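Re: folding output
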Amino acid sequence: MTLRPAPLWLPVMVAVSLLRGSCLGASSHSMKCFYTGISEPSQGLPHFVAVGYVDDQLFSYYDSNSWKLQPRVSWMEKVGKEDPQYWDRNTRILRVHEQIFRAGLETLRNRYNQSEGFHTIQRMYGCELRRDGSKGGFYQDGYDGRTFLTFDKETLTWVAPDPQAQITQRKWDTDLGFNQRKKAYLEKECIEWLEKHLSYGNETLLRTETPVVTMSSRTEVEDGMETHVCRVHGFYPRDIDASWTRDREVWLQDTFHGFLAPNADGTYHYWLSIQIDPKERGRYRCHVEHDGLQDPLDLELKEPTDSKSNLGLIIGCVVAALVVVGVIAGIVVFIKKHQDGYKAASTNDKGSSSSDQGSNQAI
């Protein structure tokens, strides 16, 4: 992702500077790339897959079957209008990565003394603009589902968990220029492209949807304790602060938190429960803060409308949680196994690119 200064980018940069002061600081935003190479594709999986995400939205996709990088959201078409060579240039870069991945799979299979079969090599990297104004970046390689190398951008070194990975670690750590380019990409180019993407997709990425907060409660027949569930639904962006408070202080005891999960329309939902003595009901509140709210919400706990056991409620929550866990686990496995990887750049490409052009290092 090397940006070249040109009048072409000026309107975007002006928009980004305005967004910095108004929207970007309100919530955290991230850009992440996931690449994966597979030794023996099965069930239609390609040899190589590369995807890019802004926040939780897939914006670009490439695989070795199509040999072409393509947009996955309408607002990415603006990039091609600004820079007509963008898609072709990045396609060429990803084809180089694909070849590096194929060679890397063979190298690591021999290094780990493994037989032929199904093996994967992954890379995931990205950057983040946090809501407090700070920035973050990460770079990590994996092999067969395990961490292979992690980049420490503060020390300009690679961290290796086993002797086989240390071979590559020593090789890359001797190339100070390679590591410096990696740090520069994470701290500068990646952030600049994240801001550009946020400006292009501002209608969806920078929108706010107000959370709908509801409460439900049940009384335990066995011991008379009450379980209260606070549900927060339909909010965007995903950053939210929801907690139980007791006497206006955050209260963690006897609480259970659900999973922050996406809805089909791109918004999110979340829930949390608490079990209390009904004599102290008035001391508790469900506290919610979100960009879509002008002021924080503090919802009082209501007396249960019936005395039925909350066993069904608890079972429902647990089942829902397990379903969400299964979905998230499936997504994570898919991304880890089929969407992590390399971003290598052709040395003949001099132009702007959304790929990390400082990563064309063989394992």
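--- second protein (sequence, then structure) ---
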Amino acid sequence: MNDCPIASQDSLTVQGRERTLTLVVPKNLPPDPPLVILFHGSQQSSRVFRKFTAGTFDDAAARTGSVLAYVDGFDRHFNDSRVGADFRCRELGIDDVAFTAATIKRLRRTHGIDESKVFVVGYSNGGHMVIRLIHEAPKLLAGAAIIAATQPTPDNFLLAGRLPTLPRPVRLLAVHGTEDQLAPYKGGQASLWGKQSRGAVLSAPDSARYFAERNGIHTPPTETQWHEDVVVTEWAGQGLEPVQLWTVHGMGHVVPVPHDLPASLGPGTRAFAAADVITGFFGLSEV
């Protein structure tokens, strides 16, 4: 197992603007390591999100010999998949897809990452950025995970009518709490506690089903009671990229981690750490 990973700040220029990120690299980096890119939520930053997730992704990086890139949104937001995301990055046309591609290219050069093993994880606004990447740049991704975010409805989907007829499948794991008051589990208007609507979104189950069908899976899912408060629904088929939905009963708008989070976001859970589940789903084994 690697020792504790080393964190550092990095920057690169995209569209003539300096973009920043926090890098976390195992001390004993193996050849051709995987890369996991993490996208924070609204009003957060790479440093805040690293603290928000209690270092659990850092621990996973140490176990699996992966490079982590916690990227910073412009003005603390990403230009995501929703029409209703009226952030300043949208007004300015910030290209976070290009930022993601540039990050991958940079880390291939500086850390020798394996470009066939690039995974993305996003929470809230960052989750919607991951949704945009799945649709707009799937060739960059070996797998994706979204937390507290679901597919926008067609009228709220920024890329509606601009997608290829035959989509490129991407394996996906989604985590969502049934008591999420910002990104409602049952779908409807996503907002900040009823204010500043971000437009309509699908329910968490319908969103997962959408991605399963996008991956070519049309058979009914299987359902497992993983924990008394956690149900795992999986869509799978031979030779097809799977989709999993981890439904956490009673959880709010948070990332599952083994510590307390701001009460304003709703209850958390200690049933599992999202980083561990996501790492396993990506197939990143210990080194």
